[in-house]
Amino acid sequence: MKNKGQKKKPINLTEKPNRSSRRIDNATPFEITRIMNREDERVARAVRTQLKPIAKAIRLGAEAVSRGGRLLYVGAGTSGRLGVLDAAECPPTFSVSPKMVQGIIAGGTGAPLVPYADYLLFRKKGKTRALLNLGGIANVTVLPGRLEEVMAFDTGPANMVIDSLVRLQSRGRMKWDPEGQLAGRGRINEELLGDLMRHPYFQLSPPKSTGREMFGEEFAKDLWGKNRSLPWEDLLATATFFTAASVYRGFDDFIFSRFRVDEIFVSGGGMHNQTLMGFLRKVFGPIPIGPLNDLGVDGDAKEALAFALLADATLQGLPSNVPGATGARRPAVLGKIIL
Length: 339
Known about the structure:
This protein has 339 residues and is α/β, with parallel strands linked by helices. It is built from 13 helices and seven strands.
């Protein structure tokens, strides 16, 4: 315990007035550049004194990412915007998934992004529609009457685990299960399905999102390696039903208590997997399930269309996130424009 007479250490502020640039607004262009250059030199000297801690942070970060972790930049103001810029540059520079490195400035998970377009394009007065996109990951958008009521989140894997298993079993000769034909020959292993459904992601409440860091190649390799004694078609059938069961669990745990869903429309590559679509119709029972094409929009092009609308909103300076879906504290203009 501290003595009563002991002085408290002052708190070091990260931002405070800089006396060297106090009158920079009255300086000449040459004086401004000289002040900025002098301040830049101070940054380099300060970094030089902290090389060992910085190297340790890099090593720990690299180890975490190699184990399936993610790098998140979190900030506000100028520092937050610089973090978002750095995060945006990582995918094209280092060929990493956009979900592996993310910048968060308005709070929330940063995903899903398509609910704004879903609401503009597919809501229908008097009905509550659910739009289920089956890409690598399965994500759902529930469309009630008002944008503020829209709910959206990632339910778990869609094609990601299925496709990885097909690549592993075929040694790269096949990349997916055409129309679910291979899975359609197998039988569901209930014990394995029970193990898969105990994944901790399904216990998280929305807003939430996931990706390869959780259900990617390493997850599939582990699943494949531990179940080599199962007939191949049974393993694939179980993985396919796992997608349907995890989608239904997302609805049952978080959606049905808030909304009466009238119909579900499916987009993405998973809508071509007839075995998966059959499983979905089985678990959802009386709720009609059909491809997004039934609404006059190509289900394979939905995300491209959504991001075109997001880009248009950004050009117009309009907020296009849905705080109820991502957990952001406020509506925000998304993305950046580079000319």
